[in-house]
Specification:
heterodimer, A: alpha/beta, Rossmann fold, 2 domains, 6-stranded mixed sheet, 4-stranded antiparallel sheet, 40% helix, 23% strand, B: mainly alpha, elongated
């Protein structure tokens, strides 16, 4: 699988440096008073699979929401395809999003629609294609994710892995140039998770798209990534290839890669003071 | 004292924010209803039809029963009250004006707020929690165009239509009771109703019903989109939606009655 991944990078990068599809500069964001992302900067090149990794509360989901233009940053900038998200009007942002596909952690399929209708939805909204073509295209995408024959089922009738694959079919139905995955392996058994990783690699091969995966699943990250960005407490610890991350000397990166629990020393007096504090 | 002031300040700011958000939803929905087709992003007729079915057609039985029962009760109370003054026949002009101006629209407003206001808040709230609203945004589909505009259009058609039905059913209920109690024919009752009723009386009820339609849409959608905190949060927002819808309807009714009756 790694070989496949490496080949794809070479294919996407024939000699010259590929143009950055995503450029994040000095991104800072708050939740109430709490700083969630602190001076985050990164670039993702065209055709690259970038994994954004970090533990719970590291800020990776918040970063993804900013990349999707769902949240506005306190400061800093995010450029997708060269366009600054904070300078785009609401309508221009909706137009830009048509070049993107997103597979949410929960799938976020529309529960009132069948699987087929979910996949057909973007085509109905954004194209003038006739019904027959829309049906054929949605079946093609369902074939890609191995869900052919399931188009008449409701999302509630699918297993967790099938929901993720159906969400992926919906995300790629408009042939996006940029694809985001939020925790693709979360809640899946190892076999289904590996199938999904394989599917992500195959998609990049066949569609030559840029893919950003936000995950805390180490095995999945190592098997699909061209580059990994490690987030910790809202800051980027490092960005590098799989081998660079594996051989990092940074203790926090090591702790994440080798799954070493964080052992913070506890000040007993401070601990008791916090417990007995009156608000 | 400081906590009380802070809490009060927070609630006032929250209220102003919600008011502004409601105005934004209304303007944006009207924009999509008017200009969506010209921008290749129409509000789909099948979505409006589905909402009309849910909001209007399925509410016909309950509106019919409640309006009919209300007409009977108003006639009963009127006859017994006016009998002491020997003015029983005056119940008919009273019914004609109070039902068309006031109670038809009010009954429909409360029924639609209870049935559809809660359902809309719960549906949008559940979509918000399962990231379906975010999915709409990232698919390049404006959630206001897709979710709010069809509801607003359906409400603006169905609430006044249901009000006309409620007027008819309440007047029928009042008519049956009056004809039995006062030994008069239904034709005579109908003649007296028509003689004592003005087009403006009916219009007043219809104008109010249009305002109620907008209020129910906005209050329920605001609560749906603001849902956080899992199933408990969804329950709280649904309850809040119904309570606020009914409160808004009654207050708006009072204000409109004050100005329209002068």
């Amino acid at each position: 699988m790694s070989a496949m991944s490496a080949n794809a990078v070479t294919a996407a990068d024939p000699g010259s440096a590929p143009q950055a599809v995503i450029q994040v500069e000095n991104l800072v964001t708050y939740y109430d008073e709490r700083r969630i992302l602190d001076d985050v900067s990164l670039e993702v090149a065209a055709g690259e699979i970038r994994v954004i990794m970090g533990g719970s509360g590291s800020g990776k989901s918040t970063l993804l929401r900013h990349l999707l233009g769902l949240n506005r940053p306190a400061s800093g900038s995010i450029r997708l395809f060269g366009q600054d998200l904070s300078r785009l009007s609401g309508q221009a942002l909706f137009e830009l999003r048509r070049k993107m596909g997103v597979s949410f952690q929960s799938g976020a399929l529309f529960n009132s629609m069948t699987v087929g209708e979910n996949v057909q939805f973007p085509l109905r909204e954004h194209t003038q294609l006739d019904e027959n073509t829309i049906r054929i295209m949605s079946r093609m995408k369902l074939e890609v994710v191995n869900l052919a024959g399931y188009e008449n089922l409701l999302p509630a009738q699918l297993s967790g892995g099938m929901v993720k694959r159906a969400a992926l079919a919906r995300a790629i139905v408009m042939d996006p140039k940029l694809l985001f995955f939020d925790e693709p392996s979360a809640g899946l058994d190892p076999v289904v998770s590996a199938e999904l990783d394989e599917l992500i690699l195959r998609l990049r091969e066949s569609m030559n798209i840029t893919i950003v995966v936000v995950t805390h699943e180490l095995e999945s990250a190592l098997s699909i990534a061209d580059k990994i960005t490690v987030l910790d407490r809202g800051r980027i610890l490092m960005t590098g290839s799989v081998d660079e991350v594996k051989s990092s000397t940074n203790s926090r990166v090591n702790a994440l890669i080798n799954r070493i629990p964080e052992n913070e020393s506890v000040d007993v007096d401070d601990y008791l003071r916090r417990l007995t504090r009156v608000d | 004292m400081r906590a009380f002031t802070e809490n009060l300040g927070r609630r006032v700011v929250g209220g102003v924010e919600e008011f502004g958000y409601g105005a934004e939803l209304l303007v944006e929905s009207l924009f999509w209803l008017g200009a969506g087709a010209f921008r290749q992003q129409p509000v789909h007729l099948h979505a409006i039809a589905a909402e009309m079915m849910r909001i209007g057609v399925l509410a016909i039985p309950v509106v019919t029963i409640l309006a009919f029962a209300n007409g009977v009760m108003m006639a009963l109370q009127g006859i017994y009250t006016l009998r002491d003054f020997g003015a029983e026949s005056q119940v008919i002009p009273g019914l004609a004006m109070s039902i068309t101006r006031e109670f038809g629209a009010l009954i429909v407003g409360i029924v639609v707020a209870g049935r559809s206001g809660s359902a809309i808040a719960a549906r949008i709230g559940a979509m918000q929690m399962s990231q379906e609203v975010d999915a709409l945004r990232v698919l390049g589909v404006n959630p206001v165009r897709h979710l709010v505009a069809p509801i607003l259009a359906a409400m603006l058609v169905m609430v006044p239509t249901l009000t006309v039905l409620a007027d008819l059913m309440a007047l029928t209920g009042g008519g049956i009771l009056s004809s039995l109690q006062m030994h008069m024919s239904l034709a005579a009752y109908a003649n007296m109703i028509l003689a004592n009723m003005d087009v403006f009386d009916v219009m007043q009820g219809l104008i109010k019903s249009g305002v109620f339609a907008v209020l129910i849409t906005l209050v329920s959608c605001i609560n749906g989109f603001s849902t956080t905190g899992g199933s408990e949060g969804l329950g709280l927002r649904t309850t809040r939606s119904v309570v606020l819808c009914i409160a808004a309807i009654v207050v708006a009714d009072m204000i409109f009655t004050f100005f329209l009756s002068r």
